[in-house]
Amino acid sequence: MNAMAKGSFRDQVLRVREDAIVTAVNRLLAEKGFEQMTVDEVAADVGIAKASLYKHFASKEALAAAAMVRVLERTLEVIGQLAARREVAPFERLREVTRWALRVQLSGQMPILPAQNSSLRAELMAHRTYLDLLVTCSDRLGEWIIQAQADGQIDRSLPPELVLYTLFARACDPVPGVMKSSGRHGDEQIVEWVLATCFSGLGTRPS
Amino acid sequence: MNAMAKGSFRDQVLRVREDAIVTAVNRLLAEKGFEQMTVDEVAADVGIAKASLYKHFASKEALAAAAMVRVLERTLEVIGQLAARREVAPFERLREVTRWALRVQLSGQMPILPAQNSSLRAELMAHRTYLDLLVTCSDRLGEWIIQAQADGQIDRSLPPELVLYTLFARACDPVPGVMKSSGRHGDEQIVEWVLATCFSGLGTRPS
DNA sequence: GTCTATAGCCAGATAGAC
DNA sequence: GTCTATCTGGCTATAGAC
């Protein structure tokens, strides 16, 4: 939480440690969600005492918020990279972002969407950095959605917000995980199938 | 749990009470999920003491299992009614089942899909009635899926199990609830939009 | 800043009177 | 079967020594 300066050696050690904490939290959030994750597990995973965790982060909610912030930062990086590729149409950019999210999900590193009633929800809604990143992320994706609708590549009768929520939801969908747990299919194959159901739907095109 | 006989008056009273319990559990499962639901809430909602609940159901997991069983029974009823309408194609039947599930979800009565790691999961996997209903339900939907693929109405490149999981997942998707919470759209409109994203996808058909 | 030990709380489950 | 009162265990968070 502190130690933003990267000058001294001690501070760098601190940053590395906090990064390890956030990584552990991120993995546990992906595995079991906020309520089911215990601070003891996080401490054990990082290899330090629970009390030490609380020297870095004020609460369990703060731990989760840090992980959510990092996910959003990475998402914005991916969005930025795609935005630089001017030859890629908005519709394809949305597909690429979703593809990236599905891969992260299948690798067990996508934190579960905070439930509508979670105690986490309130804290996140008061977390400036998180909210700012979320809004930025939504805005950039929202632009692409509207452009894709103008291009005739996304159904114009769908409200852009519905499309946005649908993409967010697909990033946390249980379906890829269930398919993976059968052990019969590779990650890339699952990603392509889920992408197909998301963008093309279950039905075939009428000829 | 007991009192299957409907003979005596006392037993009927018991059945009505247990039905009220299951209804409350069902609502709370839909609202907050298994882990977030507390037995105290259930008792308060029914209007009896917590200890009395445990005279009817052995554990919190047993409460949830009863609710899940009832949902599956109702699902099978819907499936049975659709099966009787021979003029409706399998693809349309799948859409109708999904439409029904989305309506139940929006009315706040669809229990949340049990998470892969939940303590509930283990108990359900040992619950004969639940498993039997789940398998029956999956088999009947699976038949329709395969027929719809043979009819060329569902993408043949998708594994039937993926289609099945996708339909189950859509019944518990957070998207309809989030759309409803904005208060700007009616339930039926939301149902149609979500059905469209599910069966036709986000993209428009190439002409 | 790290640890051990523990406070404080809450939720699932039970005891025992009626 | 229903109640009140209580037990038990697990979890967040903190005290205090080093």
Order of helices and strands of chain A: HHHHHHHHHH
- The whole-number mean of residue pLDDT values of chain A reads 95
| Helix amount of chain A | over 70%
Principal-axis shape of chain A equals globular
Alpha carbon gyration radius of chain A: 19 Å
Assembly type of the chains comes to homodimer
Task: Please report the total strand number of chain A as a whole number.
Answer: 0
Uncertain parts of chain A: none
Q: Mind describing the biggest β-sheet of chain A?
A: none
Largest interface (C-beta under 8 Å):
A-B, 47 and 47 residues
> What fraction strand of chain A?
under 5%
What would you call the structural class of chain A? Answer: mainly alpha
Taking the alpha carbons of the first and last residues of chain A, their distance comes to 57 Å
Number of helices of chain A: 10
Structure description:
The structure is a homodimer of 207-residue chains. With 207 residues, chain A is an all-alpha fold. Helix content of chain A is 71%, strand content 0%. Chain A is built from ten helices and no strands. Chain A has helices spanning 9-36, 39-46, 50-56, 60-84, 90-106, 119-125, 128-150, 160-171, 174-181, 187-199. The radius of gyration of chain A is 19 Å and the shape is globular. The first copy, chain A, starts with 8 loop residues before the first helix and ends in an 8-residue tail after the last helix. The mean pLDDT of chain A is 95. At the A-B interface, helix 1, helix 8, helix 9 and helix 10 of A face helix 1, helix 8, helix 9 and helix 10 of B. Chain A binds a DNA duplex (18 and 18 nucleotides) through helix 3.
